User: Fold Hydantoin utilization protein A from Staphylococcus cohnii.
Amino acid sequence: MSDQEQPNWVLGVDVGGTFTDVVVMGDQGKLVSTKTPSTPDQSDGVINGIKKIAEILETNYDEFLANCTLVVHGTTVATNALLEYDGAKVGLLTTEGFRDEIEFRRGYKESVFSVRLQKPHQIVPRRYRIGVPERMDKDGNILTPLDEGAVRRSVRELVKEGVKSIAVCFLFSFVNPAHERRVKEIISEEAPDVFVSLSSDVLPQIREFERVSTTVVNAFTGPVMQSYLNHLKERLNEQGFAGELFVMQSNGGVQNVEQTGKLAAGSLLSGPAGGVSAASFIGERSGYENLITVDMGGTSYDVSVIEQLEPTITTESWISRYRVALPMMDIHTIGAGGGSIAWIDSGGALRVGPKSAGSYPGPACYDRGGTQPTVTDINVLLGYINPDNFLGGEMELKRELAEKAVEEHIAKPLGISVIEAALAISQIVNSDMSNAVQYVTSQRGFDPRNFALLAVGGAGAIHAGRQAEDLGINTVIVPALAPVFAAQGDVAADLKVTELRTIFEEMKHVDLDEINQAFEEMEKTTRNKLGAQDITKHFQANRYIDMRYEGEVHEVTVPVRSRTKRITALNLEATVKDFHGLHERLFAHKDVDQSIEILNLRLDLIGVREKVLLQDEAFDAEDPAPAEVGKRTVYFSSDPVDVEVYYASLLNPGNLIAGPAIIEQWGTTIVVYPNQEALIDANRNCVIEVQQIRGGQQ
Assistant:
């Protein structure tokens, strides 16, 4: 095959705790995916995954890599560094008298009502936190000049202690960053190899604790992320990769290696964000603009909301006990996965999770020494999972061990049968997961009945049908690439850079010229951060204003509706009207006569990529009989029923499957419950229509 005939490939690579997922899309619409075991050095797993994809495509690895124009990487390097407290040795330079801000927080713990909650692990111990003489006022005027001699002495002291990364956070530096900028220059003179994280770069906005916490987290994770990305890029280039390497960010966009290394805190949700981005992509192609995404893996259940194809964003994340106030996907997680353990509490009540059996020893049916009953065990007992075809037959499960675990730990103590115990466990975990969906919908002003439920992860499609019934949701979508969904999102995501700026003012005193000038400067900054690259089709700037009623503590982020680059008085009036509506939806209250304050401006610059078009497949006959591989006894209640079992790989677009039925797919199982029917769409997604006879409305 000549070079002219070689397709161009775009690779999405997502590294998880167990597997590294790889999805490749060609410019001719071809899409291929695979999994390979994750490795301690994540770059090994990435390289192995790319080699495996080349084998599947029956092409030479060097030739394939040379024709890859883009690799988008979802990575847990920064996440693991923070979760395991295995980041760089960090020092903090702050305004004299304020070095304990990181511990004082806002005078309360993130879990206000937990009296037993201990203080978090110190990622910057007090002896490495140094206050230096300097002070700005709230308007950015210098009250106390920067003591450069004190800065030099402090830097030398920290370096002597082995500090490899320094965070700098001065009072009101978000208004005037001059002192922080000068400190960075001094550090580069005294210790050019030390990583520097300035709060005026990381989070230039009001609220001191949020700013210092986010800056310290960035300093803690930055060197690790920077080292890893440089290592991966070097390995890829040595093997002939001449394209561009980008990294999935927590805000749902992708960014180049250089900027990701500087702002590692922006990639703390790199993996889950890929899945949410993929959901937007699937929703657009399938005609569903409002989605609730649920990802059920081995230990956790992640839920997020997409409205009008836009994922919800939050700036109030706590990760490993530290506040990270950067805009991130709003992903709610509970301890409910395939490995979640069922147990009986001291009051005799049946509980499920949050403790998990993990991968080792894992569920009892894994036959790795685990003896506690888990959600995976009950799914085997109820007939939802085929123990002989788990992971496409790569792993054999032991039904008898699952039965023994449930009988000893649940059925006998409660005086019920094994099947009754399994059904009870299933009902409890389904209820827990439905409550998690309610948390991100009803409690935030969304009606779940107005959304489709998109289920991914190894166990998501087993339970999604029941949750849809409980929540009154009419449609469940199981993507064709549900087991590697985050990697698919990496492939589809646009570039995105977020810039923040504080303008604290009463709305009635707002200067439109000041706001427009600020947004103009922010757009220039974001364009510089995107840097020179060849994958952007065009740019799109989305503007937001954080607003609140006077006297409130929390603000509401409101999109600015404007067809031009300049915001007019009419645009601002419309934004205020939208604020009242959003406030009422979120808090069931609005007061159009109440004075309004603005706090921050936010601009998202999106580098829109040329989309790789997938080829829709023509519909086949409705009859799915050619894909039927037999029947299996399944328990939806205490009365067993025999249901048809289908292989997903044998199903074709247009096939219609009436429930109850089971669809076995590598990496996941889809349960079509009674009174439901599944259609395989033109992209081989499984779309299940749900008849509301349980929790919803008929």
About this structure: Confidence is low (pLDDT under 50) at residues 694-698. Residues 222 and 264 are 5 Å apart (CA to CA). The first strand starts at residue 9 and ends at 15. The longest helix spans residues 208-238.
